[in-house]
Amino acid sequence: MHTILSNALAMYIVLAASTLFMEKLMQSSPFAGASLRPRGGTYAHPSWLAPYLSGNSRCHKALHARANFYFSKDSIPESWATEHERGVQSLASFYESQGRLVTLEQQNSFKTASPTGVSLSGQMDLVVGETSDQPATIADVKTGKPRPSHRAQVLLYMALAPHLPEFRNITKPPSGVIYYSSTNEIVEIPAEEANSQFKQQVADLLCIAVGESPQTTPSMQDCRFCVFRDCCPDVVLAETSAVTVDWL
Question: Please, are residues 133 and 172 in contact by the beta-carbon 8 Å criterion?
Fold first, then answer.
């Protein structure tokens, strides 16, 4: 009898603890009713920041949620990975044929943090080493159509590289390149674009990421591909119908 009571009590404690844990998750979640698991600290990936830096995304609530909570990621199609790798190798061969030293992907991994405590990590597709008369080049390979966020992502890499111990051989501000593998187009980005104004934009975004959760500012453009669209109560997935204005 004593064993049965002990087992029942243990089960009750486990159930109560589980219930409290779920309630805590629900209370801390940025979206009412959604049980998102908090991260151990605030984290940002360059590709998350790029749409905000380019003006493509404006809902800071989604950025804050990404930075502070784990979320479901869409799987990467194998065809994309193959095409992307082909583009990386093609661009590397182009620079190597000019006698330049090139490092690829995992060799270009980095990890840093902002003064406000936001961890930032990623990897650059290609880093072309600087020479006595040429700056280093940070290159990113894209397989789809050009977007303003692509430029912003490379600019972020350009701004970071000279300050990262992983790239101690970069002593001058690097230039940037976006290579669109499907069209074989190369877009060059001058070093001057990674200026103090751009760096301040990045710092401001990281302050938003680590601060209090902002209000949602939903729009069809932002909501359509948002990773939180299934749990955000303010999601907008269709155009609003036109309203007649009498005086027009």
Answer: no
